[in-house]
Amino acid sequence: MSGAALGIEIVVVFFLALFLLHRYGDFKKQQRMVLFGTLLAWYLCFLIVFILPLDVSTHKTVIFHVCEHILCSYFQSTQHVCYKPWSYIPDGIMPVFWRVVYWTSQCLTWLLLPFMQSYARSGGFSITGKIKTALIENAIYYGTYLFIFGSLLIYVAVHPQWRLSWYELQTIGITAANTWGLFLLVLLLGYGLVEIPRSYWEASRQGHLLIKTYFKVAKLMTEKADSEENLEDVMEEVRKINESIKYNHPLRKNVDTILRKCPVEYQEKMGRNMDDYEDFDDKHNTYPTERSLSKLHKQVIYAVQRHNRTRVQWQILLEQAFHLEDVAKNETSTSRQFIHSFAPPEPVGWFRRYIYTPTVEWYWECLLKQWFYRILSVVLALFSVAVVWSECTFFSTRPVLSLFAVFIQLAERDYNYLYIEMACFITIFFLCTCVYSTVFRIRVFNYYYLASHHQTDAYSLQFSGMLFCRLTPPLCLNFLGLIHMDSAISHQEKEQTAYTSIMGSMRVLSFIANGFYIYYPMLIVILCIATYFSLGTRCLNLLGFQQFMGDEMTSDLIDEGRELLRRERRKRQRIEDGESRRREWRERYAQRDEIAARNRTSMSEMKETNYGETLNSNTNRQAKYTRGSSQTGRDSIELLQDAETLDFNAKTLTDDPLQSEPGRHAGGRYLSMSSSRSRIFDDV
């Protein structure tokens, strides 16, 4: 089993990163380079988080080697038996693994992802144009790094007493990157430690959650109208350029590229108004340049992406609001069966038919879900308190005040490696949840926004990858400091983990190791207090950014959202009523068509029967009037010799005029073929 845990976690983490990327990104429309860069950044960061507990437990197996040596020397005097844990990783694997993962993530976050971000956001029409735009945008970015690095080298060269080796320069670079990451880490962690337990507590209050949803509906409606107006303005500019640049203009291929990025309905409108027979030289107009077309291309991509995102979010928010209103109505139901206002768009599967029945759904939505969220909120709040306490006291080693360090040391005494791994995993998973969930929640206007259901743009995906790569290494170092596994912070002469050996000794910069890394995390207390009292939300509300502040502060938007939701409900109800009426008419006409088809079948059968009887009667009559060959020949001769005009007023009719006397006049013998007029239609 040596190394099996490492291989399993590598595979599991890959599929976890792939699942999240599929949820937020769009595999069909976005560029492969953007998806690959984001997937690699997320995968490496999640890998560091999941593998670090194995590194800690492997480090603790040094106790196993010491204990094994003692057993070999004093086998007669000891009764303790040491065993190798199933997740033990052989020596030499973890240092190489951490070195590859760490430096790959740092190259991504500081070099490749910024360039790829500018490349994906560029409005160029060719690869060369996009690369040129990306290099120009990142010139200041990379120039700053080169200036700092060059100044550092000059400073070291001027002062020979420093005598910094390559290892020490590498450690200084790692320390600078971790310092920047720790500065942002404390801000995000202070927000997440309070907001995550509070969000679950508010989710248990159905009334409060419904009011907040009304506020979101009104706010999203404003954003949706703004995105539609922005799209109309951009499409108007595209229409003007499409009409001015004709088919034989050199920039026409760029215009066609822009048109392909437009929605289908706008493409059809613009395609109908084109006059391809006109030449661009016939009229002396001012034509746009390639640079202006690139700018317009960028605006089209942004406007279409924003419009699609708001449209999808509007539908999702409406479904959530309708569901919350259904929960409020079903809470007073005496039948204890959950009734939905609208039928689900998808057919009911076996899970909802046999397991998640309406009765089970009622008990979960109206009774159990609230208590589950409350219990979960209390547990998460206790974890948050433990983290805040440990962040303020992790530098104290005698006595040990950090709660997580106490738990690890208790497991170390009993040689319980499984407990060490589980305690480390739960702790670092909670820290990562607080930090990463804040990254997924924050929104910097419309430039950075992670939206689910495949609605995140390329810029936001790569920016999140940059943040993850910069936040994860200092987060892991902070975790190791909480459990007293970082000798640079705990000041204890212990065997270092493979991760801390790659990070280097922070004692090269003593003012950072002994000052910033110890006292700066204490600011998390102030940030938690500010988040608890919603100081940031209140400041944004004062600056004009609408934020949810309760019933009284945002009553106008809540009423507006309620009215918008009522309007959408009536609209959807009319649509469903129309569909039901059309369905009823189809079923009714289907029954009529079935009856008519059955009648037609029976009538055709009756006609076939009558036709058979008619054939039989004609056969019998033909046999009745059959004569000999001589008689038939005589009749034929009479017909040929009869040249007189037919007398239709003849009064004498015989049953068989052909058998009349030879001297009698033959006129009028074709007036009737039967004995009387009343029997003319008997055979019909």
Unreliably modeled segments:
68-80, 619-684
The CA-CA distance between the termini, in Å, is: 96 Å
Largest sheet: 2 strands, antiparallel
Classify the beta-strand content into a percent band. under 5%
Walk across the major sheet and give the strand order.
1-2
Helical stretch tally: 23
Task: Count the E strands.
Answer: 2
Question: Structural class of the secondary structure composition?
Answer: mainly alpha
Task: Sketch the topology as an H/E string, one letter per element.
Answer: HHHHHHHHHHHHHHHEEHHHHHHHH
Average predicted confidence as pLDDT: 79
Helix content: over 70%
What does this structure look like?
The protein has 684 residues and is mostly helical. Helices cover 70% and strands 1% of the residues. It is built from 23 helices and two strands. The protein has helices at 4-24, 32-60, 62-73, 93-121, 127-137, 139-158, 166-203, 206-244, 252-261, 264-272, 290-330, 350-355, 358-393, 403-413, 417-441, 458-482, 487-490, 498-503, 510-519, 524-532, 535-542, 555-624, 629-641, and strands at residues 443-444, 448-449. A hairpin with a 3-residue loop joins strand 1 and strand 2 (448-449). Helix 4 (93-121) crosses helix 5 and helix 7 (166-203) packs across helix 13 (358-393). The longest helix has 70 residues, at 555-624. The model is unreliable at 68-80 and 619-684 (pLDDT under 50). Residues 217-244 form a coiled coil. It is found in: Membrane. The chain crosses the membrane at residues 6-22, 34-54, 100-119, 139-158, 170-194, 371-389, 418-439, 516-535. It is a multi-pass membrane protein.
